[in-house]
Description:
Shape: elongated
Mean pLDDT: 87
Radius of gyration: 24 Å
CATH superfamily of the largest domain: Cytochrome c-like domain
Order of helices and strands: HHHHHHHHHHHHHHHHHHH
Number of helices: 19
Number of strands: 0
CATH topology of the largest domain: Cytochrome Bc1 Complex, Chain D, domain 2
Distance between the termini: 93 Å
Strand content: under 5%
Amino acid sequence: MAVICAALLxxxxxxxxxxxxxxxxxxxxxxxxxxxxxxxxxxxxxxxAPNLVNDVDRVRLGAGHYQGGCAPCHGAPGEPANPxxxxxxxxxxxxxxxxxxxxxxxxxxxxxxxxxxxxxPAWASQDRDDEVWAVVAFLRRLPHLxxxxxxxxxxxxxxxxxxxVTALLSSGSDTPDIAACAKCHGTKSAGPTSSLVPRLxxxxxxxxxxxxxxxxxxxxxxxxMEPIAAELDELTVKAxxxxxxxxxxxxxxxxxxxxxxxxxxxxxxxxxxxxxEAIPSCLSCHGQNAAERYPRLxxxPQRYLALQLGLxxxxxxxxxxxxxxxxxxxxxxxxxxxxxxxxYFASLPPLSLTQNMRDAAVDAPAKQGAQR
Length: 372
């Protein structure tokens, strides 16, 4: 009791200096480090890590987020941390020399849950473990990166410049200067570098703008996209949507990984559905002449499509009316059917929205004649 009273008296007196500028005593710092290390190891004990070795898609996706969400505090090869972050207590560490001390599951727990009293935030979407693992995959690569290697991974096909997406407002929607988007989604000269990222070129303005609004409102969950979309005003949302809608779609320079799943069986599901399982035709909403509020799936990476169907099926992506419709359909799809239908769409050539509409107009008379 005497010890408790003494501690309360000391706290009441205000003699302990809580200023970040004063730093911690060596014994305090050692005690906090000891407690943090053991807490992370205990809390992450039951986590099973996926195989991240040579998973370039995860590395590239994680690098894109790290550049905007982590590097300002932790720095990166050739890019020092912001001076403000360096004066936090504790100061965010330079990660390259620190990640080797942690296992993958430890890094996952830290990135997902953050740390109290350090300024390290939790992941913005707690249901998106797939995104957290992408950051972990990148962190494993980080200690081996040169400044040039980091820029190639983090900025992708975008130029390594720090101007924000709001530059669209001053230079017009036809500008390629949208590094915040292009580092993951590509530009007019190159598509995405990760098959975990959708191709936006040629999607409709209506769909792209609504997707950004859904992210900003947290009705579509993503720890990567939500922080970006939340900073965009409506004018910028429309400008970004117009930019990508106006791009011609093309194949990535890097070949698509080997597709898994029976293309022919996937085509049957895409065209006719599976009536006996109450699965409708995919092309009725996602085909070339579908309404602009729906995404075109032709030429999208199989891994991205399979991931999204998994999110629908698990209920993570089921917070809007359209998403709930897709979630109900995805629940009826087996793993085999998901592999089949995603392989089919990934095998198709990507077409621009204008080309889709033009082809639909040309094909319509022929289809009507064939039905007579």
